[in-house]
Amino acid sequence: MQTKIAPSILSADFSVMGEAIKKLEASGADLIHCDVMDGSFVEPITFGGQMIKNIRPLTKLPLDVHLMIEHPKTQIKFFADAGADIITVHYKACKKISDGYLEETLKLIRSHGVKCGAVVNPDVPVENIFPVFPLCDMVLLMSVFPGYGGQKFIPEVMDKIKKAREYAAAIGKGDMDIEIDGGVTMENAGAIRAAGANVLVAGSTVFNSKDWKATIAGLKK
Ligand code: DX5
Ligand code: ZN
Question: Which of 151, 205, 215 to mutate to test the pocket of ligand 1 (most atoms within 8 A of CB)?
Fold first, then answer.
């Protein structure tokens, strides 16, 4: 499968976001990963739908909106209307509300014509989201605990990537996107791809590098 790189704008200078978006596209990014944090599901607050709306006209790349928020169902319409191409929601945030909430939220995302995905934290077994694999365009396996960029990759996630890829293939969705988020570097990208992930989020690795184009190309190689 072709590897896609999704730079996370969490690591951008928010005062010049538009320039960062254009530079990411020119540097060969495949998606723009947008980390939405609410100060409750995770400690920090980042941005909401207004950011998505403002960057939407600046790029043709898909906007990959990662919602790290409580009650995600209440916010889907805002991010869909703002121009998200894919919205992912956390298993943990949904499970707190009810057993059916994750599935309902994924269906709601789809009803807006937007791709959807479920996310698990490093301490949640990937098997917990197997029941919603048939509904998902993508699954996102966190390789750090969400909230901050620049953390270290948790190696135990490698095994979950393999399990996710095997299960996706077993249900006839061998080409499903499996995204890894957190601590992706030039050093570990090859192993992450070999384990079966095809979408790599990279925040600090891209933004802290001098040559974004070379870094994005390197993460794919
Ligand atoms: C963490 C975010 C990540 C983060 C990744 O909560 O979901 O997308 O920005 O940053 P790096 O690549 O620096 O670990
Ligand atoms: Zn993210």
Answer: 151
